[in-house]
Amino acid sequence: MGESTATSGGTAWFVVLYARPSTRKHKKWELDGFIECPSNGECLLWDDGKRNVVSRSTLTPAEIANIRDGDEFGFGAYEVQIQEAMAAPRPPVPVIKPATPQLQPLATRNPAKRPLDDGLDLNAPPVKATRGFVSPFASVQAKANNWHLDENEKSAYIEGRIANKLREHQRDGILFMYERLTKCPGGAILADDMGLGKSIQTISTCLALLKNNAIAVKSPADFSTYSSSCTAYPFLICSYDMVLRHHGRLAPLNFDVLVCDEAHRLKNPDAKLRTALESIGAERRLLLTGTPLQNELCELYSLLDFTQPGRLGTSAEFAALVKES
């Protein structure tokens, strides 16, 4: 059974997944949110940003007290799955609209810059793979004569048809992740805001590691968009719900890299999902999140410790280190 209900001022709060009612055997949980359960039983389902009430329901005090991690039940127009009890979330940060920019005459604007060198041949035929899947990081293979993020010995090879879509901050992100994931143990957190291209950066990094050696894990439809040269199947893509149900079958597969999207869901080190992912045992871990950590040092430490376990000592040692710096 899960932990006891957390209360704040007589109100219980829970982190949940929710979706429209479904008759499927394995439900597909679509959205993250919070349930607020005050003492009067008039409960609210909030969205992930705690800006909008999604649904309402009435629960008795006994029903609220008996809620445990993993419970599933109807809540208004939705079905919910309890992830964990929590303290009251911080109020949402107000969104400040930027001032309207002053438009310049067309003649004074800076000309658009090409994101890549003019010498890049985007029409070159794709390089045919000459090998199948090999053990990751076993040996460095010869690289094709396409674009490289870096011109040194450990350059990250990216196919031209992906390279021509990358912006400068995305190239920097790929280099950052590539450098840290080639180490063992290694790991990184990519915390770009929504819309800055975390998916293409992650896919490019995984393919760069795969080109040089082999590896990884990430998101479904994007791989078919950006990669057609994988003749083997080195990527396993699954939801957190599937990990919770089948982590015992995943652990023996010896994954080289674990990529976790929506990583803010791993803040609680005692949550079932966190424990299931740790049991997989991948020594290289990449976390992706666009959700702010609300300036909580313990949350930052929790994600850093999941990325590279033990690297920063205990939570108290990490707090002292931050205070000293």
Please provide a written account of the structure.
- There is one protein chain.
- By secondary structure, the chain is of the alpha+beta class.
- The chain is globular, with a radius of gyration of 23 Å.
- The protein has nine helices and ten strands.
- The protein starts with 6 loop residues before the first strand and ends with a helix.
- It has helices at residues 61-65, 160-163, 168-181, 198-212, 220-226, 240-250, 272-280, 297-307, 315-324; strands spanning 7-8, 11-19, 31-37, 42-47, 53-58, 72-75, 78-86, 186-190, 257-260, 284-288.
- The protein folds into two domains: 7-86, no CATH class; 160-324, Tandem AAA-ATPase domain (Rossmann fold, 3-Layer(aba) Sandwich), CATH 3.40.50.
How many H/I helices? 9
Q: Beta-strand percentage?
A: 15-25%
State the share of residues found in helices, binned by percent.
25-40%
CATH class annotation of the largest domain: Alpha Beta
The H-and-E topology, N to C, reads as EEEEEHEEHHEHHHEHEHH
Which architecture of the largest domain does the CATH hierarchy give at level 2?
A: 3-Layer(aba) Sandwich
- How widely separated are the two ends? 41 Å
Give average pLDDT, whole number.
75
**CATH homologous superfamily heading of the largest domain:** Tandem AAA-ATPase domain
Kindly provide the radius of gyration, computed on alpha-carbon positions and rounded to a whole number of angstroms: 23 Å
Question: How many domain regions?
Answer: 2
Number of beta-strand segments: 10
**Bulk shape:** globular
Largest sheet, in brief, is: 7 strands, antiparallel
Low-confidence stretches: 116-122, 127-153, 213-218
User: Which structural category fits the helices and strands?
Assistant: alpha+beta
